[in-house]
Write a structure and sequence with these properties.
By secondary structure, the protein is of the alpha/beta class. It has 2 domains: 133 residues, Aspartate Aminotransferase, domain 1 (Alpha-Beta Complex); 233 residues, Aspartate Aminotransferase, domain 2, CATH 3.40.640.10. Helices cover 41% and strands 14% of the residues. It contains 15 helices and 15 strands. It has a 7-stranded mixed beta sheet with strand order 2-10-9-8-7-3-4, sandwiched between helices. A 4-stranded antiparallel beta sheet has the order 11-12-15-14, covered by helices on one side. The protein has a two-stranded parallel ribbon with strand order 1-13. Helix 6 links the parallel strand 3 and strand 4. The longest helix is centred in the C-terminal third of the chain and has 25 residues. The chain starts with 16 loop residues before the first helix and ends with a helix. The chain binds pyridoxal-5'-phosphate. The site of pyridoxal-5'-phosphate has 13 residues, from helix 5.
Length: 406
């Protein structure tokens, strides 16, 4: 079956965070919303059908965790990543950010230090801080690589740059910390961490006694040419010292259903986490989560492959447009997901002025790079999970503003 990703869907008046919240956040309603990480494509029909079918039954009473939920997750992890997991390793969490918060409460105390790699998904900064933990940043570096896209006007261009770990810094700071939040694949850097990097992270964290929380929400969106290796699969040290969080919420565009899960191979860590959740009944789950996860993972391969092809096409389009028409804006090419970190540092604007340029001159609502930590200064994060026509219009608006100003 061929799915249609070109169709523009009017999402207004659905209480959508991405669309309906723009006037409140930006104070205006003339912006094209390309910010928060959900997709403008229809949630796949096999998920909607499964939910509709359940709603045919008139009673929505208390519901147990469906067998199909366990089986679908085990099958998916095996099929997609070659990771053989056991059903008992699984637990429901109502979202990965809540899962991260639960891990902090369960495995750290107020005042303990939590290691993150900035620029990074901003709740990694906010959740520990808001819960009295101390955030320790090990900033990522940008490694330049030649892609072969010529860019004469702006020789500093690096379309194929990737973010890498400053190992010396990481190791030194790990020594102070109790827990490390690994963003894998990384948002907003788009990195799919390699096997040797994962093993090295695992080895350092094990040696320093730092528990690793691996957030793999973007894993299913790994792009062509890259392979996602679950952290816990990379080596025994990783398996025995980690909590993995995963979810079909990004890859199948069902973030509103808050249907995530934890995978914990180590029985002691698992028991401690499970007790923490059970004491407050945080892991009950809900009827629609079990149905939607099972449907996504049971019928989703073909849809996801087509979706990834489409996203890849959008990324290529943005990359070519920037290289040819706006050479002072470069992009870090994502290896996974639909979020592009635009390097606008060559425009020479302060973070405030950069945001004003995007909002007031290009009429685009993007995430400001600085919200992901100080190393994100001068960057903007663009979400390209929209129909091509929308992305083309966005790039057109950006180019008009760019030409007027630079
Ligand atoms: C890296 C990362 N983790 C977690 C989330 C959100 O997860 P959830 O909605 O399950 O809390 C996002 C959403 O953008 C994300 O990018």
């Amino acid at each position: 079956m061929k799915y249609d990703f070109d169709k523009v869907i009017d999402r207004r008046h659905t209480d959508s965070l991405k669309i309906d919240y723009v006037p409140e956040l930006w104070g205006r309603d003339d912006l094209m919303p390309l910010w928060v990480a959900d997709m403008d494509f229809a949630t796949p029909p096999f998920i909607l059908d499964a939910l509709k079918q359940r709603c045919e039954h008139p009673v929505l009473g208390y519901t147990c965790r469906a067998r199909a939920w366990y089986e679908a997750i085990v099958r998916w992890q095996q099929m997609r990543y070659g990771w053989t997991i056991s059903e008992e390793w699984l637990n429901f969490v109502p979202g990965i950010v809540p899962g991260i918060a639960f891990s902090l409460h369960c495995f750290t105390r107020p005042g303990d230090k939590v290691l993150i790699q900035t620029p990074v998904y901003h709740p990694y900064i906010l959740v520990p801080k808001n819960n009295g933990r101390v955030v320790v940043e090990s900033p990522l570096k940008i490694k330049k690589e030649e892609l072969g896209i010529s860019n004469e006007e702006y020789p500093e261009s690096y379309s194929a740059a990737e973010m890498t770990i400053d190992w010396e810094d990481f190791e030194r700071k790990a020594g102070e910390c109790k827990l490390f939040l690994l963003c894998h694949p990384h948002n907003p850097g788009g990195r799919v961490w390699k096997h040797e990097e994962l093993v090295r992270l695992a080895e350092i964290c094990q040696r320093k006694g730092v528990l690793v929380v691996s957030d793999e929400i973007h894993a299913d969106l790994t792009l062509h040419g890259y392979t996602h290796i679950p952290f816990a699969l990379s080596c025994e040290a990783a398996a025995q010292n980690s909590i993995t969080f995963a979810s079909p919420s990004k890859s199948f565009n069902m973030a509103g259903l808050t249907s995530s899960y934890a995978i914990i191979p180590n029985p002691d860590i698992r028991a401690q986490f499970a007790t923490f959740l059970e004491n407050s009944e945080l892991n009950l789950g809900h009827l629609f989560s079990f149905i939607s996860v099972a449907a996504a993972y049971s019928h989703g391969t073909e849809w996801l492959d087509q979706c990834l092809d489409y996203i890849q096409g959008n990324i290529d389009f943005v990359e070519q447009t920037l290289a040819c028409e706006m050479p002072r804006i470069c992009m870090i090419r994502p290896q996974a997901s639909y979020l592009i970190f635009l390097d606008c540092r060559a425009l020479g604007l302060t973070p405030e002025a950069l945001n004003r340029f995007f909002v007031e001159e290009a009429h685009l609502a993007l995430n400001e790079g600085v919200m992901f930590g100080k190393p994100g200064e001068g960057f903007m994060r663009l979400n390209v999970a929209s129909p091509r026509s929308v992305i083309k219009q966005a790039m057109h608006q950006l180019k008009e503003a760019y030409d007027r100003r630079f």
